[in-house]
Design goal:
By secondary structure, the chain is of the alpha/beta class. It has one domain (3-189, 214-258): 2-enoyl-CoA Hydratase, Chain A, domain 1, CATH 3.90.226. The protein has helices at residues 32-47, 78-97, 113-120, 147-155, 157-166, 172-178, 190-202, 206-219, 224-241, 244-258; strands at residues 3-5, 7-13, 16-22, 53-58, 63-65, 102-106, 109-111, 123-127, 131-133, 169-171, 183-185. Helix 2 (78-97) runs antiparallel to helix 9 and helix 3 crosses helix 4. It is globular and about 50 Å long.
C-alpha cells in the first residue's frame, strides 16, 4: 500500500522501498515539508528488517528533481535562509549515511538538490535523455549539501569545476563516462535495470552491505564533516554579501509569471 502525501510517495514492494518525489508540475522541486518527510521515511525504513534497498525517483518523465523550492526564500532574512539551507543539507547527508543500499532512478532533469541526492546515493541508473547539473552559480549560490566534495570525489577536479563554475548540464551518456552514472538505459528501461540490480543486491548480506557503507565513508577521510560545514559557510557568504537574494527574487518572479523552467531556461509543461 502506498503512503501518499503532497510532494512524496512511499511504496514498498517486497524488500524494496521506493520514495517517489511527487510534484511533476513543478519538475519535482522539493519543499521543506517534503524534506522533513523524506527524513522521517529514511529513519523508519532503516529500522525495518524486511527492507533491503531504498530507491529514490521522480514522478513523471520530465524530472527526477529540479532542485530545492526557493520560492519561499524571497524576502526571508539571512538567519532563516541559513536554517533552511542547513535542514536541506542534513537530509542529503542522512541519505548518504543510510545503512541500506540506495539507488537513484533518473528521468529528465537532476539539478541542484536533485544532483545532490544522486551523489548521496550508492547507485545511479539513468534513462536516455536525462541531464545532470549544478545551476546554483546562476542564482549567486554554490552547492552546499556536500555536493562539491562528493562531485569532486566522483568525477575529479576539472570536470567538477566545469559543472559548478558554469552552472551547465551534462547528458546521461557524458555523466556515465565521467563516473557519475552507473548505467544509461533506453527510454522505458529503468524498471528492468532496477530489477536486475535489486536481485543482485538482495542476494548479498544486509549486515555486510551496511558495514561496507561504513568502510566507504571512512575511506573518504576524517575531514568529511568539516568540508561539508565549509560549504554551508560559503553559501552563507553568498547570501550575505553576493547578489543571491536578488537572483532568487528574480527566479520567484519568473516561476510565478512564466511557468516552471528547467535549469537551462527551457519552459516546461506539467505532466
Amino acid at each position: 500500500m502506498d503512503e501518499r502525501s503532497p510532494g512524496l510517495i512511499l511504496r514498498k514492494e517486497g524488500g524494496v522501498a521506493r520514495l517517489v518525489i511527487s510534484r511533476p508540475a513543478r519538475m519535482n522541486v522539493l519543499r521543506p515539508a517534503d524534506l522533513r518527510l523524506l527524513w522521517k521515511h529514511m529513519v523508519a525504513l532503516e529500522a525495518e528488517e524486511a527492507v533491503r534497498l531504498v530507491v529514490l525517483e521522480g514522478e513523471g518523465e520530465k524530472a527526477f528533481c529540479a532542485g530545492l523550492d526557493l520560492s519561499g526564500w524571497r524576502g526571508v532574512g539571512l538567519a532563516e535562509m541559513r536554517r533552511r539551507a542547513r535542514e536541506a543539507r542534513m537530509v542529503v547527508n542522512r541519505l548518504a549515511d543510510l545503512a541500506l543500499p540506495t539507488v537513484a532512478l533518473v528521468k529528465g532533469v537532476a539539478a541542484g538538490l536533485g544532483l545532490e541526492l544522486c551523489l548521496a546515493c550508492d547507485f545511479v541508473l539513468a534513462e536516455e535523455g536525462a541531464r545532470f547539473g549544478f545551476p546554483e552559480v546562476r542564482l549567486g549560490l554554490i552547492p552546499w549539501m556536500g555536493g562539491v566534495r562528493r562531485l569532486i570525489s566522483v568525477v575529479g577536479d576539472r570536470r567538477a569545476a566545469e559543472l559548478i563554475f558554469t552552472g551547465g548540464m551534462v547528458e546521461a551518456e557524458t555523466a556515465q563516462a565521467w563516473g557519475l552514472v552507473n548505467e544509461v538505459v533506453p527510454r522505458g528501461g529503468l524498471e528492468k535495470a532496477l530489477l536486475a540490480l535489486a536481485d543482485r543486491l538482495i542476494a548479498g548480506s544486509k549486515a555486510a552491505q551496511a558495514a561496507a557503507k561504513r568502510a566507504f565513508r571512512a575511506s573518504r577521510g576524517g575531514a568529511q564533516a568539516h568540508d561539508v560545514d565549509y560549504e554551508l559557510e560559503l553559501l552563507t557568504y553568498c547570501l550575505a554579501l553576493g547578489d543571491a537574494p536578488t537572483r532568487i527574487a528574480g527566479l520567484a518572479e519568473r516561476v510565478g509569471g512564466e511557468g516552471v523552467k528547467d535549469p537551462e531556461g527551457r519552459s516546461q509543461e506539467g505532466d
